[in-house]
């Protein structure tokens, strides 16, 4: 294998789109999620996000990084106005519709209608799920922090409702996102199915790891 070395300076000198593709590829596979929000006026909004991550389990917290608020960003604005949002796993049957949500629609335009997805209101909050999603979460905002390095914003939400198909939930609480067809994103526009390698027992010093997938199925 031959390699190419990139210095920070050479990266910064790349054309903007090339640099964005390059850096977004380097972070590896990321989860693909649709973020559902509603404005203070009740206008529904849907956007595709690849920056959702686990923050903690007690309380149940998830975070996501939002791009700088230098232009109108309906999702972030709605989150700040209402203090709530939904996270909806993208599966392999709705990738085209999900990616279309990255288009810059006007605030008055309903992305659900524009891309052909169905809003399903949460039982707990006045905010829309994606009905077609197989794993969906409703969250209340706990904290929004501006990251001074690049003015992106870290949104941390607390899960108040989770909807998971029975066939994807194992007895020990493991959610089989592969069985649900949840997809991953690389770079900004490449969608991937996953293939599980294994699932292992809790790692302890001087103890042999055991594959637990077969016994949990």
UniProtKB/TrEMBL annotation:
Query: Which InterPro entries does the record cross-reference, listed alphabetically?
Result: Flavin_Rdtase-like_dom, Split_barrel_FMN-bd
Which UniProt keywords are given for this protein, alphabetically ordered? Flavoprotein, FMN, Oxidoreductase
Q: What class of enzyme is it?
A: oxidoreductase
- Hydrolase as UniProt keyword: no
Looking at the record, the residues that make up the Flavin reductase like domain are: 28-167
Any Pfam family hit: Flavin_Reduct
Designated name of the protein: Flavin reductase family protein
The record lists the lineage as: Bacteria, Pseudomonadati, Pseudomonadota, Gammaproteobacteria, Alteromonadales
């Amino acid at each position: 294998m031959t390699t190419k070395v990139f210095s920070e300076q050479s990266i910064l000198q790349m054309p903007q789109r090339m640099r964005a593709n390059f850096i977004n590829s380097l972070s590896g596979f990321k989860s693909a999620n649709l973020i559902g929000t509603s404005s203070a006026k009740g206008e529904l909004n849907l956007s595709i996000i690849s920056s959702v991550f686990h923050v903690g389990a007690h309380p149940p917290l998830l975070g996501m990084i939002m791009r700088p608020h230098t232009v109108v960003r309906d999702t972030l604005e709605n989150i700040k106005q209402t203090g709530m949002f939904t996270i909806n796993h993208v599966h392999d049957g709705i990738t085209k519709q999900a990616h279309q949500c990255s288009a810059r629609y006007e605030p008055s335009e309903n992305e659900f209608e524009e891309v052909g997805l169905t809003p399903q209101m949460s039982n707990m909050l006045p905010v829309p799920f994606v009905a077609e999603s197989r794993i969906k979460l409703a969250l209340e905002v706990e904290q929004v922090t501006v990251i001074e390095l690049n003015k992106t914003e870290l949104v941390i939400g607390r899960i108040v409702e989770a909807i998971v198909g029975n066939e994807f939930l194992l007895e020990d609480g493991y959610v089989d996102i592969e069985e649900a067809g949840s997809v991953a994103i690389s770079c900004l526009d490449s969608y991937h199915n996953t293939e599980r390698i294994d699932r292992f027992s809790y790692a302890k010093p001087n103890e042999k790891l055991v594959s637990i997938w077969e016994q949990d199925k």
